């Protein structure tokens, strides 16, 4: 199976608004869905650029054998893994039954057979004693390394696997390179970064194709950052216009 490229990363599922208990998938704006549990937004999906799917590019290319994923979310990575002939088993650690049931509704609407998908209803941070080929971690809403590092290392140390990868490893590697005098994306800097994060069973070698994919993802992260800055700037402008209108009305 040839390596996927960033342009191949299109969500394998179609979505519509669904609610189950305290879990809600809703249309935030045209083409952009958000998954909310109680008052917390867990993730989003932009159907225009499928960026959230592209963030799984490394996991999809590294996957084989028995794979554990953490957090079902919108089921993108799990659906791809189910279709991957190199993957023999897909296990999902998801502690929230409402989110599991919401995904099952989405799968049913997409005629997706998930009978081979195994759910473990348990906090992924408490995972221990697993013996699989791959563990792919993505059950948190923060991307801050200082917040995630000990959680990642605990899971890595308490379980056996040949490959462990986590979201958002590409973002962390990219920022580490920029912090160190804009180092280039290559095997040498990648291996130096792997030493720095010190995570058991994190891959120490990547093919040139995967390194090229990281360069593309780095570019997308930069574009996404600019987009968010512009959105914030626009919201500030709208807020200031509204405030000035209110002040003018008050003075009159």
Report mean pLDDT, rounded to a whole number. 89
Low-confidence stretches: 228-238
Proportion of residues in extended strands: 15-25%
CATH architectural type: 3-Layer(aba) Sandwich
User: What is the straight-line distance between the termini?
Assistant: 70 Å
Structural class: alpha/beta
How many structural domains does the protein architecture include? Answer: 1
Which helices and strands appear, and what pairs or packs with what?
Layout: E1 18-20, E2 23-29, E3 32-37, E4 40-46, H1 51-54, H2 57-62, E5 65-70, H3 76-83, E6 87-93, H4 97-109, E7 117-120, E8 134-137, H5 145-158, E9 163-166, H6 169-179, H7 187-197, H8 208-251
Parallel strand pairs: 5-6, 5-8, 6-7, 8-9
Antiparallel strand pairs: 1-2, 2-3, 3-4
Describe the structure.
By secondary structure, the protein is α/β, with parallel strands linked by helices. The protein has one domain (6-221): Rossmann fold (3-Layer(aba) Sandwich), CATH 3.40.50. Helix content is 44%, strand content 19%. It contains eight helices and nine strands. The strands form two sheets. Strands 7-6-5-8-9 form a five-stranded parallel β-sheet. A four-stranded antiparallel β-sheet has the order 1-2-3-4. Strand 1 (18-20) and strand 2 (23-29) form a beta hairpin. The longest helix has 44 residues, at 208-251. The radius of gyration is 20 Å and the shape is globular. The N and C termini lie far apart (70 Å). The model is unreliable at 228-238 (pLDDT under 50).
């Amino acid at each position: 199976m040839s390596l996927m490229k960033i342009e191949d990363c299109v969500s394998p599922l179609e979505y519509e608004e669904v609610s189950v208990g305290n879990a809600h998938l809703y249309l935030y704006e045209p083409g952009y869905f958000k998954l909310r549990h109680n008052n917390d937004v867990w993730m989003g999906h932009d159907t225009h650029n499928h960026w959230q799917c592209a963030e799984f590019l490394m996991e999809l290319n590294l996957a084989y054998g028995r794979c554990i994923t953490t957090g079902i979310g919108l089921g993108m990575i799990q659906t791809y893994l189910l279709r991957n002939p190199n993957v023999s088993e897909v296990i999902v650690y998801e502690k929230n039954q409402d989110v599991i049931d919401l995904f099952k509704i989405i799968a049913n609407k997409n005629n997706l057979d998930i009978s081979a998908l195994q759910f473990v209803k348990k906090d992924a941070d408490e995972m221990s004693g697993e013996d699989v080929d791959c563990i792919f971690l993505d059950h948190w809403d923060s991307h801050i390394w200082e917040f995630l590092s000990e959680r990642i290392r605990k899971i890595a140390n308490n379980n056996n696997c040949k490959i462990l990868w986590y979201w958002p490893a590409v973002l962390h590697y990219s920022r580490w390179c920029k912090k160190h005098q804009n180092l280039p994306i290559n095997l040498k800097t990648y291996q130096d970064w792997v030493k720095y994060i010190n995570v058991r069973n994190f891959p120490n070698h990547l093919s040139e194709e995967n390194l090229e994919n990281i360069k593309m993802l780095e570019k997308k992260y930069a574009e996404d950052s600019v987009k968010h800055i512009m959105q914030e700037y626009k919201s500030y402008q709208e807020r200031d216009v509204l405030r000035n209108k209110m002040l003018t009305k008050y003075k009159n």
